[in-house]
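Interim report, section 4.2 (structural modelling).
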Amino acid sequence: MSEITLVIDGVECRASKGETILQVARKNNIYIPTLCWMEGLTPIGSCRMCVVEVAGNAKLLTACTTPAENNMQVSTKTEKLTNYRRQILELLFAGRNHFCMFCSQTGDCELQRLAIEHGMDNVRYPFLYETFHNDASDPNIQIDHNRCILCLRCIRVCAEKVGAHTLDLEKRGWGTNITADLGKKLGESDSCVSCGACAQVCPTGTITLRDFVYRGRRHDCDDQVESICPLCSLGCRIKAYVRTGSVVRVEGISGDSPDGGQLCHMGRWWLPKSTERERLSVPMIRSGSSFREASWEEAIALVAEKMKPALKDDRAGALVSELSTDEELTVISSFFRDTLEMKKMDGFYGNMLRGFVRGFKPFADQGVRPFTGAHNILKSDAIVVVEADPQEETPVAASYIRVSTVIERAKLINVSAGKNPFEGITDSDHRTTKKGMLSLLIALRKAVEGAEEDVSPEVKATAAILRNAKNPVVVIGSKLAEEDPRLVTEAVNLAVASKAFFEDGLGVVPMLRASNSLGALNTITGENDWVSDGQLDFLYVLSTGMVSEDKRSLEAMTRSRFVVVHTPFMVHPLVNMADVLLPAPAWFERSGHYCTLEGERRRMNLVTAPLGNIKGLSVIMKEIAGKLGVEMQKGSAAPCENVYEAKAPSDAARTVDSTLFAKEVR
Amino acid sequence: MIMAKPKIASVWLEACAGCHMSFLDIDERIVDLLGKVELTATPITDIKEFPEVEVGVIEGALGNEEELHLAKELRERCKILIAWGDCAVFGGINCMRNFMPAEQVLREGYVETVSTVNPEGVIPGKDLPALLPHAIPVDRAVKVDVYVPGCPPDADTIYYVFSEILEGRIPSVPTDIMRYD
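Predicted structure of the assembly:
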């Protein structure tokens, strides 16, 4: 890229060719007001707030869409520009219902902020008092078209980042409106994934989220804490707003990141809603059909008393949530595994994780990292989705797949026994049965490798797509791993055969579900599945209370004679299973690290101080150790980022005959 | 020679009186201010007729014939007219009725609301000033010299505006203290 020099407001600025005037100005800390522009979205220059004067050009140019040129003389703050900008704002205020005093977003509104910034103390144009409808059909998201300035940020984020393209424009001129699905109300839309990104980017009070309005303007909040969402393996970055001790709003952190600051329905609604759930604040001991409050001392003494004999007979186990932080998992594993030498440890997603680990093993043994960061889906030109439902498993990765397919024109191939999760946008769709999956994957791989015999035309077409693709990616669903590790191996084989090599590993994205799955692998995930049929005398359960427990785990609890449930929330049926309930801090009261699918170790931060009589996990473990009369050992588990080290696979990565190794690992 | 103190008249039209309340929030500075100006017709002094004044202040939008008349009358009798608060500047909360015809506003207000018991459907109005089609900001009817938006404007903003006028300047509200809510 060639370097150019231009002058903005008398400041000499260096820039690369291709950058817009706005980008150069921002880099040099020169402020140009913007309204429709948003970082990460395509600039459209529709609001005209960013107009600038360029010497030698009679027209005013929009800074967000005009490329900077060598020797350009740009002025951003002339009286003429200020007047024009104020006029634009007055016209916007006159057009629809922009009366701040009865708007939920007053004080948080970018339109209002700009108007005040430009000294707009009155509106010189007649107000139109036009009536547009207020779309309150969606349970979470409200669209009041009367407050809309048609900046199209919502449309762009929905299309370019979420990939849903639910929103677009209808009608013309004054009557132009945002609409969903070619004329439906938002609540009736089929394509909306309820992620709330549209509300996060809305500069006015048009698109609002019922859960957040009237609970505090952003700047009125006492604290804004950056953290991560622990609800799936991506670990999206969030900003939590705190007011009078409660989390009143959760937003994605926008900017230039691949996700564009989006969250999915889980991060956007489940996180803030969970703060209102009933909490467990003191230890409780079962007394008949209900519980009675107890002191920590008493509860821990009882736990140790029941644990001791069970440990001796190998009839004690621990079932730990993979949504726990690295630090928590390390404490758990150093206590149960290294100190007490307990063999029966597992996570709630144990079967699925074992499936992935075993399926990945032959590749890890070759020294290759068998997966890549999920954002690499955006760089891919051919995506194979194998028995996955990304919208369920890791919704933001589903956004990546949709964006890559619809906007970047990547080919999308579905391989599944059930329904096609991307119906309508797939280029080829292979349906099979559970039994037929292995042979289908093998057939696909062999076809990619060049086999000609006994190849169906559909498989041949898909193989051609993969052979021609530069950066193919294989997305492996969690169901595939639960089914059979050989299927995982074959899916990875398909990636290897297609030469899906990225800088950090093979072009495979496993739908790991839980946020700290990678951290769980070498700390709590067991060697085999004792949960499904074990009968224990003692079972310790650590739950984050955010994801409901599956049938397998709940049944294991019912079969156990004494169950300790350590959880922040009074979630049913989990608490019904307990003989002792220990209160734990909730996600917003904890801090620690997560090894995310993006290959980054991300930090979760304390948002509010823990309430109630809560003790830290290591303190509890130490006290139990004291009662048992053992000394806490230092943990031996390797840090999670060392489990699969990121490195570029060479072309030497080879496929594996899954039918051969399958017998020994199973 | 002792100069006569400048006279101020203010009027509370279609609004909630919040701006006048906010004016009282200038607290002890009011003593200082009263030493420099003479309050004539205001909602506080309860003088009905506007005399000739230097500064006229209107709080509220114009929603009916009487309010329109009062605004015009005050404009004629003052040198500097201040539109005080969001209602006077933009129309404010009164604009909520502008999204439907005036007749429907009366029907909804007096007959159709769920809590109303009015079996005959009587709409008062015979002896009352007629509603204008829209509740309008003051500057749609008469010329305004100073705009002070805010719901209500802060006491400091109000005091700033009066101080500037007493110094012989026509102020505009600085952006760092301007607000619309």
